[in-house]
């Protein structure tokens, strides 16, 4: 199993909406590196659900339930082989883990969320996964 972090602006699509919808396609990714990360996801992989712009915090965990397929949100005439994956809400964090807290801890200096802050889909190492889950008060 691999671990990931996926970002969403909560005013566009929030953790609460993910929970309500249960399974939701992760659409709208328009960055080639992020697209390649979506393509690398396998069924059963887990991802942190991160609220970007508003909150800037990890709020829950989702699971990949369908691997990459063509993104249905592609507009007519839009160029690119954009994909999405289907995510299922697993559990919320008891305590959201803020970007500020991660930046303040040198142990997370090489976390892609810190190094490549604009990347919307990024890998998370096993060590970072377990440490962030502990900070969030949830099981890995």
Q: Which CATH architecture would you pick?
A: Roll
Q: Kindly state the percentage of residues in helix.
A: 25-40%
Overall shape: it is globular
Q: Could you report the average pLDDT, rounded to the nearest whole number?
A: 97
Strand order of the largest sheet: 2-5-4-3-1-6
Work out the count of structural domains: 1
CATH class: Alpha Beta
Kindly state the number of beta strands: 6
Number of helix segments? 5
Structural class call reads: alpha+beta
N-to-C series of helices and strands: EHEHEEEHHEH
Low-confidence runs = none
Compute the separation of the termini in Å: 12 Å
Plain-language structure description:
There is one protein chain. The protein has one domain (3-136): Roll (ph1033 like fold), CATH 3.10.590. Helix content is 26%, strand content 36%. It has 5 helices and 6 strands; from the N terminus they run E-H-E-H-E-E-E-H-H-E-H. The protein has a 6-stranded mixed sheet with strand order 2-5-4-3-1-6. A hairpin with a 5-residue loop joins strand 3 (46-51) and strand 4 (57-70). The chain is globular, with a radius of gyration of 14 Å.
């Amino acid at each position: 199993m691999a671990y990931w972090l996926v970002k969403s602006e909560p005013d566009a699509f929030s953790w609460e909406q993910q929970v309500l919808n249960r399974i939701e396609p992760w659409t709208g990714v328009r960055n080639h590196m992020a697209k390649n990360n979506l393509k690398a996801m396998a069924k059963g992989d887990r991802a942190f659900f991160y609220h970007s712009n508003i909150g800037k915090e990890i709020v829950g965990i989702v699971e990949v339930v369908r691997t990459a397929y063509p993104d249905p949100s592609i507009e007519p005439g839009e160029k690119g082989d954009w994909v999405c994956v289907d995510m299922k809400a697993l559990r919320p964090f008891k305590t959201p883990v803020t970007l500020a807290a991660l930046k303040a801890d040198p142990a997370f200096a090489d976390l892609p969320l810190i190094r490549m802050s604009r990347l919307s889909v990024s890998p998370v190492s096993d060590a970072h996964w377990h440490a962030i889950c502990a900070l969030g008060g949830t099981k890995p």
